[in-house]
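Below is the record:
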Amino acid sequence: MKKTISTILGLAALSLVTLTTSCSSDDNKNEGPKSDFVVVRDNLQGEINSGEVVLESGTYKLTGKLVVKNTAKLTIRPGVIIEATAVPSDQLAAVRYIAVAQGGQIDVQGTASSPVVMTSETKKPAAWGGLVICGKAPINKGTTASAEVSELTYGGTVANDNSGSIKYLRIEYPGFSYSSDKEFNGLSLFGVGSGTVIDYVQVYESSDDGFEWFGGTVNASHLVVSNKDNTAVGDDLFDWTEGWIGNGENWYGIRTNAGNRGIEADNNANNHLATPISFPTIKNLTLVGFGSTDTSAESQAFKLRVGTKGKFDNVVLKGWKTGFDVQHDESIGYAGTDLLATNVKFEDVTLKSKSTTTASVVNNDFLKVYTESATATGAGNGSGVPTWTAGWTKGL
């Protein structure tokens, strides 16, 4: 009898040890090597130099820049909120932002019902810097370059470079400005490679561009930019330059203020023929502007210039003074072949298209750049809010 009791107690103790170990492992959930970076919930800042750091739940206060360095990884679980604290007016160097350096990775694991939110204590545009990712994919500014807002290196020869995965992320009130020539966007993609996943991301009330690509090959789908009822919001909904070659699908952008363009697309301002030449392919796109009565000089759904190419299909444009504004000889020369929008529906657009040569010769009926379709659905619901935005976006 004593032997039986002893055996039972031993088995019970073994089970308890196993259970305790299992629970501890589940709580940790790190998929990679542990990092020596210490997470302080009310003081999140610094450099993650190695290993994986996991933000599990609740709210974290971003009190400075957070940089994910080479070989390191930042994982953010569903429902996590990262809130940038206010920047004192005399401490511009202390701007809050999150950056992923070449060789680092970010894994945003939001869901439709529980998105990850990057926001700020100050609920107005330009309150913080947003998210910056630097990869090793090709650019046309040189083999490599230095990012304008983080001074991190970007660019290279690795077209399929992998900077991680971003799913169901909302970025609120970004666009911090050091000067008129040095401003953060919502999500800045510097030489990011096609191994990176970007799907279901909203930029809300950014003072600068919502999304901007600086070269690279990354694809991006289910993107939302919404700038509503705030006169401090400016610049473009989507922007690319420096040779971005990637695919986009299901983009919805709306502004109800007198900001700038829906899309501003460049190749290289200093050398319009610099390679690789910007040449994205984008389908299922809706761009809603302030209205055709907008007095802004930049009320253009598309501004395509300095040598960019691009293919667009199933496009709905509403509320712009100009639908397509094609500039410079190189981009004009691509129109109809490597610069073409097919199946476009115009609503409340005063001038459907125009072109301006490098010598400033204007054509206010530049038909080669688009074809029309009355049945175009754009991002899924014509000029209305797409159903795929439900649950994880804000302010639509």
Notes: Residues 1-28 have pLDDT under 50 and may be disordered. The chain has two helices and 27 strands.
